[in-house]
Amino acid sequence: MRARYGVPLGITSVGAVGLVYAAAFEARSFRLRRLTVPVLPPGMRPLRILQVSDIHMVRGQRKKRAWLQSLAGLRPDFVVNTGDNLSDPEGVPEALDALGPLMEFPGVYVFGSNDYYGPKLRNPARYLLEKAQGRHGLNGNAPAVGAVHNPWEDLRDAFDSAGWVGLNNARGRLKLEAGEIAFTGLDDPHIKRDRYEEVAGGPESGADLSLAIVHAPYLRTLDAFTADGYPLILAGHTHGGQLCIPFYGALVTNCDLDTDRVKGLSTHQTAGRTSHLHVSAGCGTNRYTPVRFACPPEATLLTLVSPA
């Protein structure tokens, strides 16, 4: 077997094929995950929530845009957008075009760091180094310098105009045929914009159900929501690990959440209480690392039901 620069040609070829697959196929192999969560009060009819997250829209992503538009055919009771809609400062029009049909439904949203700031080129190996050192985002790292500012105000204004409820360190409600749903949300903990003290106090009286929403599932936010008694927390940010090892799973979560809960439905326990946690693997990638492996892009349709 010939070698090139000391690397066996076969290994080089396998790596190249894997990279092509991860970029050209899997990163655009959009999936819908369906889950049932037993969190409704007895007697309340099932609720269908469509969660979209980590779209990271870049101009020209026609397949992603069409797929997101098609999700309106699911006819959810409401939509939860858990942030990171952008990966291009000029991507707002296409992000709004993609989400347009979904904005015909009731919805709520929080923002992630990539709604506020444009991405920067960085070595993916740094995520492993930061994990080993316990550093994630601005939670232990130095503040970003020279960051590109995204036009997040345009996203906010469009969402608000459509009737979606902003939950960045805020509470809100949706009145649906099935009942009144209360929400408590946080701005992105990954860049230390979360202010739990502004929304603390737990589920609201008078609502049929209260849910917690955050972009990045840092343990401090999960602990706070769970201790306050929220039955379900919805989050994104992790990309499901993005580059995973088959039959093993994710290597990193890009926050202090353990890799066993990097995506999908799990539980979180603290102070003698337990909450259901759903972390979306999201449907996009940073524009500078447009690859996924063993972790296809997704949205999730969660059906909330009463416990059996």
Q: How far from one another are the termini?
A: 61 Å
Strand content: 15-25%
Q: What are the secondary-structure elements, in order, as H or E?
A: EEHEEHEHEHHHEEEEHEEEE
Largest sheet: 6 strands, mixed
List low-confidence stretches.
Answer: 1-5, 9-19
Morphology: globular
How many whole angstroms does the radius of gyration measure? 19 Å
Strand order of the largest sheet: 3-14-4-5-6-7
Give the proportion of residues in helices. Answer: 10-25%
Global mean pLDDT: 91
Short characterization:
By secondary structure, the protein is an alpha/beta fold. The chain has seven helices and 14 strands.
Give a quick set of tags describing it.
single chain; six-stranded mixed beta sheet; 7 helices; 308 residues
Provide a descriptive summary of the structure in words.
By secondary structure, the protein is an alpha/beta fold. Helix content is 21%, strand content 23%. Strands 3-14-4-5-6-7 form a six-stranded mixed β-sheet, with helices on one face. A hairpin with a 2-residue loop joins strand 12 and strand 13. Helix 2 packs parallel to helix 3. The chain is globular and about 50 Å long. It starts with a strand and ends with a strand. The model is unreliable at 1-5 and 9-19 (pLDDT under 50).
